[in-house]
Amino acid sequence: MDRDSTEALVAQVREATARGTPLRIIGGDTKRFYGRAVTGVPLETRGHSGVLSHDPAELVLTARGGTPLAEVEAQLASHGQRLPFEPPHFGAGSTIGGAVACGLAGPARAWAGALRDYVLGVRVLTGDGRVLRFGGEVMKNVAGYDVARLMAGSLGILGVLLDVSLKVLPRPAAERTLALEVDQGGALDRFASLGRTALPLSAGSWVDGRLYLRFEGCDATLQSVERRVGGEAIPDADAFWTSLREQTHPFFAGALPLWRCTVSALAPPLPLDGGPLMEWNGLQRWYRCAPDTQAFAAAATAGGHATLFRHRPDDADAFAPLARPVMRLHRDLKRVFDPAGILNPGRLYSDL
Amino acid sequence: MATDPALLRALREALGSDSVLTAAESCVAFECDALTAHRRTPDLVVLPGSTAEVQSVLRIAAAHGTPVVARGAGTGLSGGALPVEGGLLLVLSKLDRILEIDPARRLARVQPGVTNLAISEAAKPHGLFYAPDPSSQVACTIGGNVAENSGGVHCLKYGLTVHNLLEVCLATCDGEIVTIGSALGEAPGLSLLPLITGSEGMLGVVVEVTVRLVPLPERVELLMAGFDDVSRCAGAVGRIVAAGIIPAGLEMMDGPALRAAEAFARCGYPLDATALLLCELDGLEHDVAHQLREVESILRDCGATSVRVAMDAAERARMWSGRKSAFPAVGRLAPDYYCMDGTIPRRHLASVLERIAAMSREAGLPVANVFHAGDGNLHPLILFDAGRDDELERAERLGAEILELCVAVGGTVTGEHGVGVEKLGPMCSQFGPEELEAFHAIKRVFDPTGRLNPGKAVPTLARCADYGAMRVHGGKLPFSHLPRF
Question: How many alpha carbons lie under 13 Å from residue B104 in its C-beta half-sphere?
Fold first, then answer.
């Protein structure tokens, strides 16, 4: 059912602009921990909800920003389709607009692509109350700058996502997860050698001395993969991958800071305590360690970057610092979309 | 226009005289890209040989307030590399080194003047390739591909340039180098890489590109199906996708296009067909075998009058040769042709083709259609004779109307060729003044003085006002009833 609250949202934003009141944009409020804390008047998007169109043969879905992610996924599942980037929900109320704004992806990221790769179009409410439409519902579109994909992962600092159009894909014919006992070095070697094959990998993780590899394809393909890769097929694979995606796996329990290090899949083990749990064939490595900046430095030394993902002390930065000219571009782009600086101020970086 | 002697002196000092061209007989080679209807001989052409030299050129241009138009191989189809008055043309063809092929990380780091195909060739010994394959891939450069967000016949499955790009080094309008994106695929901060991709040289000059490589498929199959009805053919496309199959390529041609291609390439197309579908499947042995059976049955079920599976690589190449040479093949039917590039939601395909046929009859100009059917990207080819009275103007008008039709059914005026100078008018149909103003504001973030490829890609509001006045002439919206001028 379509509930269109565009007018009310526009009115709220315009009033906030006029008064210079900061707004904290809230979808399902399930990813509040991600990024720096925002002090502001809540701007709720959940009342702005509904799948507007989904034609399975077009591989496109358009929904209001406040539509529950679960509703979107159920709609797709009923036609044998899915969001290939496996966005985490992190709670029951998670919305599609929040998912796009956070730009996070699950275990399939390294093979299926990032969330931004699936964004086709947006209708966005800017910080000064303009309603702008970029992109559309077609796969190929190079008219104008790609502002729709700029919104992916922008954490609401550029605008409120009113409607989003996403490319969707069919579910694979079948999936199989194989588990192998191996240490961290062995896992990294295995990731590297798998990277040189055309095997239909769709997830690769290592945790607690076990390597988990998910493959997709038809049954005959999966049988031949199993013969070649070895290991044992695990029975409740979906539950395992969901526990990584939703961070309900025991590794993520407790209140120690959670670091996400994005490094080359070939990078040797990082000199950090408390982990890792590796995903994306070693490209994404999670650690549980103290909230000082060691992880930022360790990831940078390894040619990557770190994020203080959860359990962040109030005064700490969440994201790795940007090069000065890149930060200048961020500041100037923020001014284009939110000249008064009222949308999620500070969520991404303190001065944005 | 006489070039500022101080500017010339500075450029020659920085690059050496051989890399700075001013003589009309040298500069005329750069007067246009592949949209040859628009030409202007540049006053000044520079050919830097390194990133540092590109930076010098940009710094010197900044100091002299000189506009800069970047150019790769000049294969663009929208006039994006058309020289501008008083500007310098920055030709990047000398930056043609492949810096790194990393099979373990599946990436290639190259300079912008490397051709698209050269990347795949360098990756091939490692069992990898660079997936986006525009039909000009022998000649077009990766820098140009980034500027246009180029596609190709395989982008339904493998994505566009934006999906295969990891990182670019961008020289700003002041000659500063900024790294956008990351070889890891994930970078902190805003997603700036998509903003740069397809920005048509308006935001910076790409001096280094890191792309993702993908494994060469284990098995490839190509099916060819003839239909006696365009909508049945379009229906088959929808059915294949809805069945959960994403072909590597899914291409359609209408009767005039397939007959022209057959006459040109002798590729074995069924001449009695009204529409032809080429469906390429690739992947692992068993998956492809499974999909092949399924697609064959869908095609027959949808009323294909003929279905043929290529026996081997040679036949596959022959079948593709017709599609790949469709533009020049159709081009033989008339002295000139004008290639459009709209994208539409696929469900409107049959009705849009019908309306294009009606518009073609009214305009008195034949149109042949080739179509990236999988992703809804239409390439109507308008045939005309520029030597005859007003045929060029009529062709351009018909083209603009076709694009407006695409917008009216929820599509876009350009799927992969870019706006350049060609589609500035139709951009006004697709975007309102507020979106256009946002684009101009983004441009100012990267290029405050507006010297990078000025006047391209995004129309001014004044231009749209003129265009609007022209389009509503006769008091009718272009898509409710197509007005004639």
Answer: 12
